[in-house]
Write a structure and sequence with these properties.
This protein has 6 helices and 17 strands. The strands form 4 sheets. The chain has a 5-stranded mixed sheet with strand order 1-6-5-3-2. It is an alpha+beta fold and 327 residues long.
Length: 327
């Protein structure tokens, strides 16, 4: 168990209001195991929300699954929706536990997981730390040692970054040569997107084509409009930097063909093995994905309609970067 002596600022009492709310939800269920789960999850969500509210964040309970009786029955869920930031999962940690558990069912659209320690009396809660979102195998549970959590003091800067990323990059503005904040125009978009030839590990979705199909196809138009940015995964000496490049080909007035490519940073010739690139739909479901295997670049192409939203996710192990876009 982490040393709690220096976390007093992240501790708060579980007021009578919290227990009344937990009891109210508990009464809506008849299975004892579900009743216990709902009670603890409600306390954890209450504690996480209170901690965030005291720091100026607004909680939208109407969009929080933890306050939906139907979701409580189906899922082990303890989330809070933070307005303008995203969904946080507040996982209860009981006395004696050395890890925070994350069920697969709550891994799809969370931006982070908070470890909320509930004391034996259920009268005190402490935010032990947090971790950014990470994939959990379907039907599985991931355990994250408490010693691996980021400290509560880092949560504010993390959420500020998420709030900035919550505003989607509007690709239609690129057609008017508007440079998105944090991005830079690419003069030789065609050359960067067509060489070197990318190698795919796997892809899914109707828009994806196989390497053989691509080789047999006639020459295709390539983007003349594009922007790039550097992405840093992780911190310190283990940090990995790659270049994300997005190119556009207008398809009439209502659609854009979008090319998304990851390339090594300057001075590197290969992407890290197992680096993943995924396209997520508006519901944060991966519809296309690829993985680097000693490759020079990985690239995905698809067509999206005006006003459609999607996200690009880059991941290396549990280090994940996600950016939202709107066509």
């Amino acid at each position: 168990m982490n040393d709690l002596s220096n976390l007093s600022a992240a501790s708060l009492p579980l007021a009578l209001t919290a227990h009344r709310r937990a009891q109210d939800f508990q009464r809506r269920h008849t299975v004892p195991a579900v009743q216990k789960r709902v009670y603890l999850n409600t306390l954890a969500a209450y504690a996480g929300a209170t901690y965030l509210e005291r720091r100026g964040y607004d909680i939208d309970w109407s969009q929080s699954y933890s306050h939906d009786p139907a979701q409580q029955t189906l899922l082990d869920v303890a989330d809070v929706m933070v307005s303008g930031v995203g969904r946080l999962e507040c996982r209860p940690v009981l006395p004696g536990a050395s890890a925070m558990t994350i069920p697969a069912a709550v891994s799809s659209d969370r931006i982070a997981y908070l470890a909320i320690y509930l004391d034996a009396s259920l009268r005190q809660a402490t935010l032990l730390g947090f971790t950014a979102t990470r994939p959990v195998p379907t039907g599985d549970v991931t355990s994250i040692p408490l010693s691996d959590l980021q400290s509560p003091e880092m949560l504010g800067s993390f959420l500020e970054q998420q709030a900035t990323e919550a505003v989607p990059v509007r690709l239609s503005r690129w057609l008017q040569q508007t440079i998105a904040p944090g991005w830079q125009a690419v003069a030789d978009t065609v050359a960067e997107l067509t060489a070197p030839s990318p190698t795919f590990a796997w892809r899914s979705g109707a828009a994806a084509e196989t390497e053989t199909d691509a080789a047999d196809s006639p020459p295709q138009p390539v983007p003349q409009i594009g922007q790039s940015k550097s992405i840093v995964l992780g911190t310190g000496v283990t940090a990995v930097t790659v270049t994300l490049l997005v190119g556009l080909i207008p398809q009439g007035s209502e659609e854009l063909e979008i090319w998304v490519q990851l390339s090594p940073a300057a001075g590197q010739t290969r992407l890290p093995t197992a680096l993943r690139l995924a396209i997520l739909d508006a519901n944060n479901v991966a519809v296309m994905q690829a993985e680097a295997r000693d490759t020079e670049a990985i690239q995905l192409k698809f067509v999206a309609a005006i006003a459609e939203q999607f996200s690009v996710q880059v991941a290396l192990g549990d280090r994940i970067y996600t950016e939202r876009f709107e066509v």
